[in-house]
Design a protein that fits this description.
mainly alpha
Length: about 80
């Protein structure tokens, strides 16, 4: 993730409003900790399931849906 966007900036701003600089540090640390821990957890699950046909089908379906959404957004923007 090259720029944090609203996922990080919103909790950090709220942390600043509530506790100043200490709130900024705590909110940023908590946000990145949750992201890092969930990434590690899902990586372990996906490595255990990557050869199962049902999991492959779900991943292909999600990929197709994402590509369809992107193409739809491009079509709307291009008008």
């Amino acid at each position: 993730m090259t720029n944090p966007g609203p996922i990080v900036s919103t909790p950090v701003f709220n942390g600043f409003l509530v506790h100043g600089f200490r709130g900024v540090v705590e909110a940023a640390a908590a946000t990145f900790c949750i992201a890092s821990c969930s990434r590690w957890f899902y990586l372990r699950i996906s490595r255990n399931m990557e050869k199962k046909p049902g999991f492959i089908a779900i991943v292909r379906g999600i990929t197709a849906a994402a590509i369809g959404k992107i193409i739809g957004a491009v079509a709307v923007i291009a008008q």
